[in-house]
Specification:
The chain has 9 helices and 4 strands, in the order H-H-H-H-H-E-H-H-E-H-E-E-H. By secondary structure, it is mainly α.
């Protein structure tokens, strides 16, 4: 989700007159932290990394905390405080559930993933996610929002994910030189 949203916002910024050169020249602190966090998440989600449940929980929670630190290191870039807030909410939800993000059954049913993903979560077969009904800890911060478009894969999001995506939108727009500041409208004088 993070990577696909970032690519989408880069394309939107380019369509709005943004510059790839400005993005490439931007001084973003802690980029390696972001890549490390995304690598850990990828390895856990893909099943390429198969630690015990406790280690998986610590790694999963740590990935969200690393993102939080990277966003905080870039606090001066518009949108980063919003992205940091989203990462904090995700880290809180994951930490409160032993390192697993709670996922709402209703969201899984609406997007058509209950028969596959939902039943696996109900059986406790995921190192990174847990069925919200089985966890009970801050489930409202978990993946309980959904988006089902006629094309593409259905997606389930958390409130933290939404804030993260909004923050990244503003940050990428600024880094590519797109102004989102509202300008006052000039009024004509009757005359």
């Amino acid at each position: 989700m993070f990577l696909s949203a970032t690519i989408l916002w880069i394309l939107v910024a380019k369509l709005c007159g943004g510059s790839f050169r400005k993005l490439a020249a931007a001084e973003i602190r802690g980029v390696w932290i972001i890549f490390a966090a995304l690598l850990v998440r990828f390895l856990l989600y893909s099943g390429r990394l198969k630690p015990d449940a406790v280690t998986a929980g610590v790694l999963h929670t740590s990935a969200f905390v690393l993102l939080l630190f990277a966003f905080a290191a870039n606090w001066d870039i518009h949108g980063m405080p919003i992205a940091a807030s989203g990462s904090l909410l995700n880290a809180t939800a994951v930490a409160a559930n032993g390192g697993r993000m709670p996922v709402g059954r209703m969201a899984l049913e609406v997007v058509g993933l209950w028969e596959t993903t939902g039943k696996a979560l109900a059986a406790g077969q995921s190192m990174t996610h847990v069925l919200a009904e089985n966890s009970g800890n801050l489930a409202f911060l978990g993946d309980c929002l959904w988006l089902k478009l006629p094309w593409g894969m259905p997606s389930i999001y958390s409130i933290g994910d939404v804030l993260l995506m909004i923050g990244m939108f503003f940050a990428i727009m600024e880094l590519m030189g797109v102004s989102l500041r509202l300008r006052p409208v000039e009024r004509r004088r009757a005359g």
